[in-house]
Amino acid sequence: MKTVRASEYHDIAQVEAPRVSPDGERVAFVRKVPAGDDEYEAAIHVVPVGGGSPQQFTVSEGVDSQPRWSPSGDRLAFVGTRGADDDRPQLWVMPTGGGEARQVTDVVGGVSQIAWSPDGSRIAFVQQATADDREEGRDTGLDGEDFEPEEPDPRVIDRMVYRAGERYFDGKRSHVYVADLEDEDDEVRRLTDGDYDHVEPEWADETTLYYGARRTGDPDDNIVIDVAEYDLDADEETGTVTQTTGWTPMLAAAGDGRLAYAYTPEENATLRQTEIEVLDRETGEVTTPTESLDRTLAIGMAVQWGPDEEDLYFLTPDEGDYAVWRTPADASADPERVVGGGHVEDATVGEDKVAFVRSEWDHPGDVFVSTLGGAESRRLTRINSDYLDDRAVAQPEEIQFENESGDEIQGWVLTPPDFDSDESYPLAVEIHGGPHAMWSTSGTMWHEFQLLAARGYVVFWSNPRGSTGYGEEFMAALEGGQWGPPAYEDVMAGVDEVAERDYVDEDNMFVTGGSYGGYMTTWIVGHTDRFAGAVSQRGVYELNSFYGSTDAFKLIEWDFDTTPSEDAEFLWEQSPTAYADEVDTPTLLVHADDDFRVPVNNAEMLYLLYKKNGVETRLVRYPREGHELSRSGEPAHVVDRLERIVRWFDGYSDHHDVPKALERGDEGLSASEAEDSDAEDGEDGDADPDEETGGE
């Protein structure tokens, strides 16, 4: 059988956003695939619950997302970029019984977070627009105007946080809008205004909306969210229903006036778990139905009421799984796990079933359904079956090991597809970001883990202290600025455990990770010479400069309980850059030019110090990419990053007879091979798997 190759990222479809129809007979979902080197194509598909093949529902033109069934099931709303010369998604509605999609909006800021009114007459949504756009009415309709906003020159900054993702805000604020589908012209009305962000519209009834509003103090410097109520008949906000703290309110309204929402304690919030609170608006009583569950909410799934509006459904990381739970809203019983056994990435609750997307060790993601209590589960799609049928995919082995402090740590070992226990293999150690995140055996890392194994590496990954999914105490073990030592102890304890196996070559070990995983990669090579090579990606390397350039500066204030002005020396001592002169390990640095979560200056400083100290190093920067490069970057960049990781490891491995990457130029990279293939008039440009170094 064939083994997994880096370039096959182009052949792997991603499955997202499952939505079960009101009658429970169908599930709509998004199928997303690379479309060339620099963009993706995504269309909505529908699969019958009772059995049968999924059918494409929308045309393959641009990127469709956020499928939402109307309450009666006769229409499907979605957001799409089809037919547009720009990337601003608009709202579309399509009859489910057959017919063409109708474009509902033509607005300047794009559409997101769509929600049907209970009677199906309106759709609420969120749009980001400037004050000028709002004043000129471009946020309610361009009326065919070919409008393209000008890039500010100069860019004048007034906000504390003025950029995120891969873009500058440039005066934009998110506001709540409603499109009236019964109006002949699909009238769009803006409900909110002002220099604040409004998010997550949720219908209380046909004429009442809830939404979150960040407008306390300087909203960039706290996580306080007002939950406001808007009366569409009176055309006014009627007041603040309650106030919560967190990164997203995750609102869910019941028909009797109860309101569920997410709550994270504000003090040291990055070290605290997110709970569900339920407000009874009649009595004013607030309950916390997740209080007895020592797990934090995951944002991949919205909090949802069950069909009887007695139970709430939600998603959490849970000891190597991402699991769906349900709990009585009145906290009369403990939460119970409904769906687990893999990496659930999103789910919705229908009249008598739960639809969800789950990836597992043997596939990167498909649509499943379960009964409301989880007693029965069925797989509805096999989206990547043609690809997987002739690929050798290895099954990870779960391991449990103790660190020096006596804590039990969960990890996994993946061996090559043609594994022979009598042979010897190099070890590749992977470290997750966050730091407050959790890895499973699949999710977004499925391709990378299988790729490294296919290239002949034993792959080890784990969830060291600081990870979610193991309780708040485990997650908060990094408090007081201990990002390095506890995770170092845990990762190296796992390395020791795995390296004791006869088939692991302890002289050929490699390490990589991204974001906080990049921090830990460079922390490790600054404290041990046991690794033959390292690849550090989009890492936080110097905490003082990171604090002043990131949109996530609260991570420093809460995890480290200080700021550069209070204790710059302490933050320097906790930075991997402080140990750059101790590094001998050849280290590749990978970063994105438009990464505004961990700006590239972090990599530039470390690269300069490595060069001055004689470390074998290289800095690879990807234009047009942000912090999500590895997960949703341009397809050619995603492939190139994977190939460069394996090229770097191969060059320092005694098990791969290839030169170091520093000596090879672009040889073995897909982009170079494609150019050579074009130059040779269409010959197959794939290199011999035994000779190339791109992980192929």
Question: Helices and strands in order, then pairings?
Answer:
Elements: E1 14-20, E2 26-34, E3 40-48, E4 55-56, E5 64-69, E6 75-80, E7 90-95, E8 102-103, E9 112-116, E10 122-129, H1 131-136, E11 163-164, E12 167-168, E13 173-180, E14 188-190, E15 197-205, E16 208-214, E17 224-231, E18 236-245, E19 252-253, E20 258-263, E21 275-280, E22 286-287, E23 304-305, E24 311-318, E25 321-328, E26 336-339, E27 343-349, E28 353-360, E29 363-371, E30 377-379, H2 385-388, E31 397-402, E32 408-414, E33 425-431, H3 446-454, E34 458-462, H4 472-475, H5 485-499, E35 504-514, H6 516-525, E36 533-537, H7 543-549, H8 554-559, H9 564-573, E37 587-592, H10 601-612, E38 617-622, H11 629-632, H12 635-651, H13 670-679
Radius of gyration, taken over Cα atoms and rounded to an integer in Å: 25 Å
Determine the number of helices (DSSP H or I, runs of at least 4 residues): 13
* Overall geometry: globular
Largest sheet: 8 strands, mixed
Low-confidence parts: 681-696
Q: Explain this structure to me?
A:
With 696 residues, the chain is α+β, with helices and mostly antiparallel strands. The protein is built from 13 helices and 38 strands. An 8-stranded mixed β-sheet has the order 31-32-34-33-35-36-37-38, sandwiched between helices. A 4-stranded antiparallel β-sheet has the order 1-2-3-4, with no helix packed on it. A 4-stranded antiparallel β-sheet has the order 5-6-7-8, with no helix packed on it. The radius of gyration is 25 Å and the shape is globular. The chain starts with 13 loop residues before the first strand and ends in a 17-residue tail after the last helix. Residues 681-696 have low confidence and may be disordered. Residues 131-141, 657-667 have a biased composition (Basic and acidic residues). GO terms for molecular function: peptidase activity.
